[in-house]
Predict the structure.
Amino acid sequence: MRFFEDFYVYPWASYEENNCNTIFIDGKVPVLIDPGHTHLFHYVVEGMAVDGKVAENVKVILCTHGHPDHIEAIDRFDNDVLKGISREEYEYLRDGYKELFIMTGCQMPKKPFKILLKEGTIQVGDKTFRVIVTPGHSPGSVCLYWEEKKVLISGDTVFYMGVGRTDLFGGNIEALAKSIERLSTLDIEYLIPGHGEMLKGKKAIHKNFKLILDEYF
Ligand SMILES: [Zn+2]
């Protein structure tokens, strides 16, 4: 579904299966963020087709963190599609997350991550994203801030009226609070979380941050 201009979101609405919201940003270098589960990826392909877009044209895939419901489907893409995740998450994928993948009956991705995200900016074609390292839900979670359009892609760090769980491997509630506090100072018009509803408008987003910081920590 087209959100605005080049920005598309394929939200996951079913409560029966855990899968994440997938984001597609078209342009010179088409980029997909958090492809989700392999067996559910056809929903993204179908959604993109409705919007006249082709999943095979994706050139870069960025992942907010390494949990299976966000990254499993990267293996559907060949090695010439560049894949990115933070260095910390990449290291945990080699070992720390093994149990999590086994527990959820998911395949550890075998395709290599060639982009290791770190605090700073990343240029994808004609678009610049700020990478904000936001540990808490997982040790190396990142959020992507598209400053030009005031879009925050928040992964599982912050949701509409909620925060990411911290009881999985490497989770840390104090770190999560600090990360969310940091995000709350950004100028955001669109908040696109890894699960659930998206939020539009500075006022509503500010209210959401305030509620979370008051109620959860
Ligand atoms: Zn997660």
Observations:
- The mean pLDDT is 96.
- The pocket of zinc ion is lined by residues 65, 67, 137, 156, 164 (CB under 6 Å).
